[in-house]
Amino acid sequence: MVFNDFRKRIWPIIKWQITASPTRRIENWKLRRAANGILVPFYMLRNLALLLSEKFVFPQVGITITRRCVLNCEDCVALYPHYRERKEKDIPLEILEPVIDRFLECVDGVHAFGLGGGEPFLHPHLAAMLAKTSSSDKVSWVRVYSTGMPVPKEKTLEALSHPKVTVGVSDYGELSKTLGAIKETFSAHGIRFRIEKNDWTDFGGFENRNSTREELIERFTKCWARECMIIINGELHYCYRSAHGMDLGLIARNSGDYVNIMDGTVEDVRQNIRRFLEKDFITACNHCNGCKMTPSHNRGTQAQQLQTTES
Predict the structure, then answer these.
(1) Over 70: is that where the pLDDT of 301 sits?
(2) Burial state string for 115-135 with b = 16 or more CB within 10 A and e = fewer than 16
(3) Interatomic CA distance for residues 260 and 180, integer angstroms
(4) Mind listing the pLDDT tens digit for each residue in 229-281?
(5) Which of 70, 163, 267, 309 is deepest in the core (most CB within 10 A)?
(6) 78 neighbors 245 (Cβ within 8 angstroms)
(7) pTM value?
């Protein structure tokens, strides 16, 4: 349990803390990587008390707030094209708020709480969710994951300017027509943001890979996506592939692959989460190519748009 606690909770926190350190300003990535390596022992000592304590602090958890998006990317990690076919919409605030409250009740803290989709800037009540999460003493950072389209309205911009909030804006080249306006607007409002040119991963289709147990364990262990836990429909999943795959019916539901945070007492949920963190792999691993933590693994074509007749 101690090893899994470190691997699945403490180590991701250390990595994100180092990523946010002053070394991020080093443009040469090899030099930055070397500097980050030197920092690892110091950050391990910094988080030693957390590992040894009974506190249950998550490194990163996101919640899906909308199934709408402005893009229709072929290899979308959130499986948006499938939601587009079903004409899915925003998840109502009255459904999201109790889930957020319940999750924060069941844990001692969250290093980074993410609001995502789809495109979160499309949700009419994004400002309210930012206010709720950023005001919680249990949340260290609130992260919004966005395409940068459209440019948010004034009320949302005010909420995004909270000192706990950061925005990751994806740069999709020619598709990102509002990127200049986003940079200018966010800078003017004092919003912390980062323009990201992320690697594009092809997770493959949803057919059964018929992988052996050993292959599934290796795929799960080496996958960076498992560090990005996601809540959807009141269920905590390891990754988008599992959460959205089961939500869409593309992967058979397996109650052992998620935690229903709305079911049972707070202590019941805490125990279920602890058991969940002991898993060696999940069903979704058998319906996924995986994504090893190397820059060259499994790259697809970035933001390749699917043709559609929908507006």
Answers:
(1) no
(2) bbbbbbbbbebbbbbbebbbe
(3) 41
(4) 999 999 999 999 999 999 999 999 999 999 999 999 999 999 999 899 889 99
(5) 70
(6) no
(7) 0.85
Q: Are 119 and 70 in contact (CB under 8 A)?
A: yes
Q: Give the distance, in angstroms, between the CA of residue 203 and the centroid of all CA atoms in the same chain.
A: 16
**Dist. CA 297–CA 128, nearest whole Å:** 38
DSSP structural state of residue 206: S
**Residue 151 DSSP symbol:** P
pLDDT band at 3 (very low <50, low <70, confident <90, very high): low
Strands 235-237 and 109-116: unpaired
d(CA 273, CA 227): 14
Beta-carbon contacts of residue 60 (< 8 Å; ≥ 6 apart): 12, 16, 110, 111, 112, 113, 114, 143, 227, 228, 229
Give the DSSP letter of residue 168. Answer: E
Helix axes 29-46, 11-19, angle to 10 degrees: 130
Q: How far apart are CA 142 and CA 160, in angstroms?
A: 9
d(CA 114, CA 250): 24
Tokens coding 269: 């949920």
pLDDT of residue 242: 96
What sign does the dihedral 109-114-117-119 (CA atoms) show? positive
